[in-house]
Design goal:
The chain is an alpha+beta fold. It has 12 helices and 20 strands. It is elongated, with a radius of gyration of 32 Å. The C terminus is likely disordered.
Length: 508
């Protein structure tokens, strides 16, 4: 194949560009565009169209971008511009516009890399904090932890240096972009383009350098394994002795820094959820953490949110898992919840009103409480989601109460029990206090899933069928009772343990 036009791919006869047709060089030395290389790969093998040498490959990104070729193409364009006669301003403007677009693309990639570095910085600082806590608890592994800590500090130091260089690069690129926009002659254009080429090369080198050096495999592997060893040692009182240096493939250049970090050391786990580091908090606040059941045949997922420092596991609902969401096994989270410390909550709101939250402590080991919990979690299928407040009884008196829970009819005629054999017992009797949660029709009713919550103390009386007590948010319930159109009110329920509150969305 002739090489009279180095700026074009010899397979598709199309000029190289900075997007999908970047030049890639094969080990045999011949260069083709990314799209053609990808299209020529078959059965993990590529045969060079020029010399017919075979190369093993599964992706075009296995072959490096030819930066020298791109530099030659840029020089050709500069030479073309400098020889353009002054009578051809449109061609000169076209080349300048092309360069402006190129700088805009570089700025976009630059900002994304800076964002990745910031997230990586947060993660490094979180790991650094974990090591500091472990060092305070376990003297036997102090030196090993200090070594891992030093690696993280070195990595953080390099990161901060690169960030500073990057921020300086932004200012230069933006200045160059302004200069290009203001050229009025071929000479000015050549000077501006020469400056832009230099800054372009610097920024490309900076981006590639960041991708190359971050994350440091040894730093992350050492940090991860030392933390795991230290935690096991705290549990078993034995010194684990295993840190290897096995190489890890980090993927190609298309992976972001944080994707490679997550590949080396998964960011989300039950333990990281307990710790609630800054990275995990950011994922939760971005609504990118969900719990899913083991049965993948059903499109079920449960949101995990954060409210006033507490984790909330929401009701299992028939909804697809959000794109790019991190997942945890729902059963594992549920196993962390002990009945003796179960807290549920209701989020209540209506048109023109912000939501209010009511927390309810359920009685341990009672049938009605277990049934309420099942309705809140959605573990049996039915939930209180999308149901409404059924009414306010004895309004304005000491017996005032708000009722709901008709999940199957939503009009007061339903509320079929989920648990069979519920009977009345002494455990359901308690003083008639404001905030008492009780079965609206009794445990033996065919509508025992319906419930009511009292709003006022009732002196010298007892309530029957009670299985929970409002711990906070009684003012929200009172506002519901005084709302003039009770059918507008919607409610969401949920529950808690360890440091988590698991929600069971109930709309009443």
């Amino acid at each position: 194949m002739e090489n009279d036009n180095p700026e074009e791919c010899k397979v598709c006869i199309t000029n190289y560009d900075k997007a999908k047709r970047r030049p890639r060089t094969l080990p045999c030395g011949h260069t083709f565009c990314t799209l053609c290389v990808a299209g020529m790969i078959k059965l993990q093998r590529l045969s060079c169209p020029t010399c017919r040498v075979d190369h093993k490959a599964t992706s075009a990104t296995h072959f490096p971008i030819s930066y020298d070729m791109e530099a030659v193409i840029r020089k050709l364009k500069v030479l073309q511009l400098t020889v353009l006669p002054s009578s051809k301003p449109n061609e000169r403007r076209s080349l300048i516009q092309e360069k402006e677009d190129s700088i805009s693309q570089l700025l976009s990639g630059f900002q994304e890399t800076l964002s990745q570095l910031k997230r990586y910085e947060v993660q490094l600082r979180d790991w650094k904090n974990q090591h500091e806590e472990l060092l305070a608890k376990l003297s036997d592994l102090v030196e090993r932890n200090k070594g891992a800590l030093k690696l993280l500090e070195d990595e953080l130091s390099i990161l901060l240096y690169q960030r500073k260089k990057g921020e300086e690069g932004v200012a230069r690129l933006e200045g160059t972009q302004g200069s290009l926009a203001g050229v009025h002659s071929a000479a000015e254009a050549a000077t501006a383009l020469d400056d832009s080429e230099r800054y372009n090369a610097e920024v490309e080198d900076w981006i590639q350098n960041c991708q190359k050096i971050f994350p440091d495999v040894n730093t992350i592997q050492t940090s991860l394994k030392v933390r795991e060893v230290t935690k096991r040692a705290l549990e078993t009182i034995k010194d684990a002795d295993a840190i290897d240096d096995a190489p890890v493939f980090l993927g190609d250049a298309d992976h972001t820094i944080m994707e490679k970090v997550d590949q080396l050391a998964p960011i989300l786990s039950i333990e990281s959820l307990r710790r609630l580091g800054e990275t995990v908090k950011a994922l939760i606040e971005a609504d990118k953490v969900v719990a899913v059941p083991q049965d993948q045949g059903r499109q079920l997922s449960s949101r995990i949110t954060l409210h006033k420092g507490r984790l909330h596991l929401h009701t299992l609902l028939h909804q697809p898992t959000p794109l790019h969401a991190h997942t945890l096994e729902h059963e594992t989270l549920m196993n962390l919840v002990e009945p003796s410390s179960t807290l549920v909550f209701l989020d209540i709101g209506w048109a023109g009103s912000a939501r209010g939250r009511i927390y309810i402590r359920l009685s341990a080991d009672t049938g009605l409480a277990k049934q309420f919990l099942l309705m809140c979690t959605g573990l049996r299928g039915p939930t209180y989601a999308n149901t409404r407040i059924l009414g306010v009884w004895n309004k304005g008196t000491e017996f005032e109460m708000v009722g709901g829970g008709d999940y199957d009819c939503n009009n007061g005629q339903g509320g079929t029990p989920l648990l069979q054999g519920l009977t009345n017992c002494e455990a359901y009797r308690r003083p008639a206090r404001a905030g008492t949660v009780r079965a609206l029709h009794g445990p033996e009713s065919t509508k025992s899933a319906q419930f009511s919550i009292t709003t006022r103390d009732c002196a010298n009386r007892e309530w029957y069928w009670a299985f929970g007590q409002v711990e906070s948010g009684l003012d929200v319930l009172k506002a519901v009772a005084h709302h003039k159109c009770i059918k507008e009110v919607k409610k969401f329920a949920q529950f808690e343990h360890w440091q988590a509150v698991a929600e069971c969305c109930t709309r009443h």
